Amino acid sequence: MAIRVLLVDDQPLLRTGFRMILEAEQDVAVVGEAGDGLQALDQVRALQPDVVLMDIRMPRMDGVEATRQITGPERDGPAKVLVLTTFDLDEYVVEALRAGASGFLLKDAPAHELVQAIRVVASGEAMLAPSVTRRLLDKYAEHLPSGEEPVPDTLHTLTDREVEVLKLVARGLSNAEIAADLFVSETTVKTHVGHVLNKLGLRDRVQAAVYAYESGLVRPGAAGQ
Predict the structure, then answer these.
(1) What is the domain-level CATH number for residue 157?
(2) Is residue 204 part of a domain?
(3) Which residue intervals define the domain HTH luxR-type in the entry (predicted)?
(4) pLDDT in tens, 166-175
(5) What pLDDT is attached to residue 96?
(6) Which one of 29, 33, 206, 224 has the minimum C-beta count within 10 Å?
(7) CATH of the domain at 70
């Protein structure tokens, strides 16, 4: 079945460009468009898309708040959010990831990257690489807690090995790289990552990276955690 995509951007020309790219793919179907966050919420309820391609800066309701409502506890469907951003709006990406976005993509990314990102997010994975998320968290560390706050109780539910894996996820390592670092199989790493997400109530690796920073487990700028 085709991946159902909702396009959300306040610039009609950009929506048209994205639609042309996506409709050329056999496994992707653009089911609707919205020009702001409020329209996006209505369309998500009506159309039940799999992936929402979400702009950040929009009138009436921005992409961060729309993402929060689409992916929050009162969500009406399975939609995942892939945020669109530009270099000069990076500071908003951290908030979008906290709000529940499964990842982000630069607006000037090549067409094949856009299509691949939608496929990855639709499959339940995070997009883009955790290393990109980590660079953003490092750059905008002032938006995060100081790390002096008490360690969340949920962190104590993890085993020592799961804590190790969470740190490596936050550093931006792939499953294969974590496996090599810990001298275990990639399947074992996937199992550990799954346990971490389940125990902490997180949806994907992006949220795990954010959690690792906000809990103080990993500190911004510390490359060798």
Answers:
(1) 1.10.10.10
(2) yes
(3) 151-216
(4) 998 887 777 8
(5) 80
(6) 224
(7) 3.40.50.2300
Tens digits of residue pLDDT in 112-158: 888 988 988 887 776 655 555 666 666 655 555 555 555 667 888 99
Distances 166 to 94, 135, 200, 222 between C-alpha atoms, Å: 18, 16, 11, 15
Number of structural domains in the chain: 2
Task: State whether 97 and 204 are in the same domain.
Answer: no
* Residues forming a β-bridge with 82: 53, 103
Residue numbers of the chain with a pLDDT score lower than 70: 73-77, 87-91, 126-152, 220-225
Reported pTM? 0.69
DSSP assignment of 62-108:
-HHHHHHHHHSTT-SS--EEEEEE-GGGHHHHHHHHHHT--EEEETT
Confirm whether 14 is domain-assigned: yes
